[in-house]
Amino acid sequence: MWVKAHIMCGVKTNVVTAVDIQGQHANDAPLLPALINHTAAHFNVKEVSADKGYSSHKNLEAVAAINATPYIAFKQNSTGAHGGETWQKMFHFFSFNREQFFAHYHKRSNIESTMMMIKTKFRDHVRSKTDVAMKNEVLGKILCHNICCLISAIYELGISPVFWPENGCPTTGWFVGEFGQGPPNTTFVPYAIFPRKIRKILTTFA
Length: 206
Hints:
Mean pLDDT: 82
Strand order of the largest sheet: 5-6-7
Radius of gyration: 19 Å
Number of strands: 7
Strand content: 15-25%
Distance between the termini: 44 Å
């Protein structure tokens, strides 16, 4: 018995923005709207790229609903004759501007890179036996992956973390933003999510 993690990730940092862990036989397409909405609640989403397994009228409309552009591959038997406005618009764009469409669509390769990053660092199997334990183990791997992405972004993207003492504020955490920016213009990451050893490492940047 095994579980399958359906994730959404960023194309610049490979941070996982949303995850839904289901059984091995769960279909991909019905899970996309929830992943999109969860991501949009915390990030400014401009584009969503996905393979044809996620191709459906509902998924394209879900992307359009957050003011993003869906670059989701169409199945071989798809036509622009049916579907909503978003479906018809993107199908015609796909048909007449295929090179430009695929330039955006191929960003989806980042999801493969993200999965490989997680599997390489934290192994591709789980040791737990129960459903709840297996899901928690996968979530733990993804959390550790996001911490690694966050630390990498400090160096690669030139962002500066600002730490608040754990007991110095009711909403203590890690604020991340551009150099010279204060907390109002930064991204808040709850300090409590980091294990004690990780907190000690992170505070060396303060």
